[in-house]
Amino acid sequence: MAKIHTKILSEAEIQAIHEASLSILKKTGIMIHHDEILKLVGEAGARVDKDSKIAHMPEQLVMDCIAKAEKQYILYGRDLRCTARFGYGDLVLMSSPGQYGWIDSRSGRLRSATIK
User: Fold this and answer.
1) CB 68 within 8 A of CB 82
2) Any idea which of 36-40, 80-84, 109-113 has the lowest mean pLDDT?
3) ∠107-108-110 over CA atoms, to 5°?
4) Cα–Cα distance, 32 to 44 (Å, whole number)
5) Of the four, 2, 6, 13, 66, which is 20 to 30 A from 35 by CA?
6) Rg (CA), the chain
7) Distance CA 58, CA 46 (A)
8) Rounded distance, CA 37 to CA 45, Å?
9) Ramachandran assignment for 62, one of left (phi > 0), alpha (psi -120 to 50 degrees), beta (any other)
């Protein structure tokens, strides 16, 4: 399995993105179209506007959620041998839906994104 270690952003840049994200979640909020989830985030401490379906997340709620979140997870493809593992140190390159290729996690080579 191919492993590549690269650093694109400095710690200061990562911190700036984190702080900007917290500000957006608190001030602008996020629109949640699922009433049950909207209720749950409200019960967890978000300020919820039921009419607009926007939840404003305070910093502490976001940080608590980050602390509780799994640090490793796997996305499985149609072929269970082809997976994307996050948090394991593997190189994972993904794009938006419609990608034409995939980096095979076993060989490290580009392969066609088909179900064959």
Assistant:
1) no
2) 109-113
3) 105
4) 14
5) 66
6) 18
7) 6
8) 13
9) alpha
CA dihedral 32, 33, 36, 37 (to 10 degrees): -20
Residue 40, Cα to own-chain centre: how many angstroms? 20
Residue 50 confidence (pLDDT)? 95
Residue range 38-49, pLDDT digits in tens: 999 999 999 999
What is the rounded CA–CA span in Å between residue 28 and residue 48? 12
Answer yes or no: are the C-beta atoms of 67 and 53 closer than 8 Å.
no
Q: Which of 27-31, 35-39, 55-59, 85-89 is predicted least confidently?
A: 85-89
Tokens of 42: 């409200």
Q: Percent of the chain beyond pLDDT 90? A: 54
Residue 22 pLDDT: 98
**DSSP annotation string for 6-21:** ---S-HHHHHHHHHHH
Domain ranges in the chain are 11-68, 73-112
